[in-house]
Every structure is written in C-alpha cells, then in structure tokens.
Amino acid sequence: MNLTEQEVQEQLDNLVKRHFLRTVSGFGNRVTKYEQRFCNSEFGDLKLSAAEVALVTTLLLRGAQTPGELRSRASRMHEFSDMTEVESTLERLASREDGPYVVRLAREPGKRESRYMHLFLRRRR
C-alpha cells in the first residue's frame, strides 16, 4: 500500500471527525499525536470488557488466529486465566446483540483448532 502524506492526513481527519481518534497535545510536541477511541468512550456506543478489547485488538492487528494464539499474543493487554476464558470471551463477541464482532472460521484441513476473525471491516458506514 502506498499512500501520500495528504491521503493519510485526510483519513486521520476523518477519524477525528467521527470521534474514533483524538489529538493529543503536550508541551514541546513537534508533531501531532493521536489517541484511539476504539471503545468505552463517552462518544461511542461500543462497550467492551478488558478481555474483549484484548482479543479484538489482537485480531485487528494480526488477522485470523486460533484461541491459543490469541491467548499468547493478547497477554500484555489482558491475562487470561485459561483457554476456557479465551473461548468464552470469543463466544460472547460472536453472539452479542449489537454484533457479532468475531466469527469462528471452519477448521482448515490438517489443523487442530478453528481460527477466529474480526468482523469490523464489514461494519463500515
């Protein structure tokens, strides 16, 4: 993907306008910094638990993954007690009334576990 600086700035401005990002100012900042407002903000309806945020963020960054991969890769954001907690959190995300936010993919031939992927791209306005 090749984007010009102007194209990136236009998208950042659009995200700020839609309240998904906010600008962060600080003493001595030479460049504009941004902070995400993905969920749990006063401007949005999306409210997620810490476990749900960890899984969704990891899926957004890394793509479809197994519950085991998610537990390992999301551990800096949330410490899951066991695989059952990961799987129950994924099931909650898949069955939310305002969702679904994730989907379980069919198990690939030769693989032990099914993978999950996020469904946020299909939710564009």
From TrEMBL:
It comes from the Bacteria. This is Protein of uncharacterized function YceH. The gene is yceH_2. Signal peptide: none annotated. PANTHER family: UPF0502 PROTEIN YCEH. InterPro entries: DUF480, WH-like_DNA-bd_sf, WH_DNA-bd_sf.
